[in-house]
Amino acid sequence: MATEEEIVKVMKFLSAAYPQRELSAETIAVYVASLADVDGELLWLAAQQAVRELKYFPTVAELLEIASRISNAFGGPGNEMTSGQAWALVMGVVRRYGFYKLTDPDVVPGVEAKLPALVVRAVHAVGGWRDLCLVREDQVMPTRAHFYKVYEQLQRRQREVRRLHPAVRQAITAARAALKGNGEVEAKAKGANREVHILPEV
User: Fold this and answer.
1) How many domains does the chain have?
2) How far apart are CA 195 and CA 60, in angstroms?
């Protein structure tokens, strides 16, 4: 993750590229806090790309978007499979391991550890390995369509989480940990008469 020194270096570079923009200490502090969860080298590349693309000093959101594109292009941690690629990977696992291994609680954790977390979540959301192994030929197309839909929903949610401020993600993680003991996934807002959904996966 980017250090304060690395982010300040990026800010100085951008300030030189956009001399019309004066940066206050408060503005720099906001960028430092908001970009702390981005890899330092990736952030530097994003800043260099930004001066080629943007007429005006980049916002935090613009730097994050450019950093995400660069990461995707080079297969970094932000890289995403398409729903078709994810489905092909899942079907390859089904063919390789088969029903008995994919219903063995001693085998499944090792298999899932080799797969992208988002793919595993999609598998469980559509019924799990057992159901996928038992899909009949006439059920393949609707099952695939359902998997695509679920996987793409998870992708959208993951992108939303990535855009959260680091402090917000930390607060959500802490709240999830606090609620995990009793299995709650919803919480009542204090002083409100409606339920609010909180705690996205982070």
Assistant:
1) 3
2) 32
Question: Which tokens hold the place of 90?
Answer: 């899942």
Domain span holding position 143: 83-162
Nearest to 57 by CA among 29, 31, 24, 21: 21
Could you read off the pLDDT of 69-105 as tens digits, one per residue? 887 776 555 456 788 888 998 999 999 899 999 999 9
Residue that has been written with the tokens 């000093």 in this structure: 57
Percent of the chain with pLDDT over 70: 85
Q: Do 106 and 172 lie in a common domain? A: no
**Which two structure tokens, joined as six digits, stand for 66?**
């450019």
Closest CA relative to residue 19, chosen from 72, 54, 56, 53: 56
Question: Would you say 3 and 40 are in contact if contact means Cβ atoms under 8 Å apart?
Answer: yes
In a domain, 78, yes or no: no
d(CA 107, CA 87): 20
Taking the model in full, what pTM does it have?
Answer: 0.55
